Amino acid sequence: MARIAPSVLGADFARLGEEIASADAAGVDWLHLDIMDGHFVPNISFGPSIVKTIDKLSKTFLDVHLMLSEPERYFEAFAKAGADCITFHVEVHPEPAPLANQLHEMGIQAGLSVNPDRGPEAVVPHLKNFDLLLVMSVFPGFGGQSFIESSLDTVRAARDHIDENNFKTLIAVDGGVERSNAVKVVEAGADVLVMGTAFFGAEDRADLARMVQKLERG
Ligand code: DX5
Ligand code: ZN
User: Fold this and answer.
1) 156 near 188, Cβ under 8 Å?
2) Which atom of ligand 1 is nearest to the CA of 32?
3) Which of 34, 55, 131, 191 is catalytic?
4) Ligand 1 in contact with 43 (CB < 6 A)?
5) Residue 144 region by backbone torsions, left for phi larger than 0, else alpha for psi between -120 and 50, else beta
6) Are the C-beta atoms of residues 23 and 201 closer than 8 Å to each other?
7) Catalytic: which of 29, 131, 174, 191?
8) With 0-12 CB in 10 A as exposed, 13-18 as middle and 19+ as buried, what is 59?
9) What would the pLDDT profile of 149-193 be if each residue is shown by its tens digit?
10) Which domains does the chain show, CATH number per domain?
11) Is residue 65 within a helix (H) or strand (E), and if so which, with residue range?
12) pTM, entire model
């Protein structure tokens, strides 16, 4: 059974409380919170105070995706704000194991993310240290972009490595994921589908969540 993680970036911030309540009512598994610094990515989103607000609004697992040039400077702030998993990019930390240890020592799950222009070799050797691999299927910075097909090669390679070694690492796919490509993303080996535009723009959010949750990797 796949999990759905709506990206709150796709929500209407003027009605943030209602949007979070609607995601909860739809039975989502995680909430995905995109943090952008205007440096690692060409956009700025929100910081720990909004994460704290969301944590107060919902009991759902908070998956915090740090698109930051110096993510480790903010681990503590996001942990205190209520993050359950903190993900940072291999592009800024090609040797990421010590940072995964830092997060684990704080009692937080550790995630590693990789952009679409890197091959699986950038992340596969590190999977043993991480609870989550977040494969980007768009170049990060903005919601609503089109899915980049070649990211599925990274998903497949990571899936094989995780299964061969009996690791517990989950694979999430982030960017341009929607109803029409959900099946193939899960078939490639994803456990978690991040959906911003698709979830918050859905006519029936609960129906979309159920559809994702019925998908099996096979
Ligand atoms: C991209 C973010 C994604 C994105 C997802 O910079 O990391 O989480 O907002 O949004 P959609 O599903 O609209 O591509
Ligand atoms: Zn994201």
Assistant:
1) yes
2) 8
3) 34
4) no
5) left
6) no
7) 174
8) exposed
9) 999 999 999 999 999 999 999 999 999 999 999 999 999 999 999
10) 3-213 (3.20.20.70)
11) strand 61-67
12) 0.98
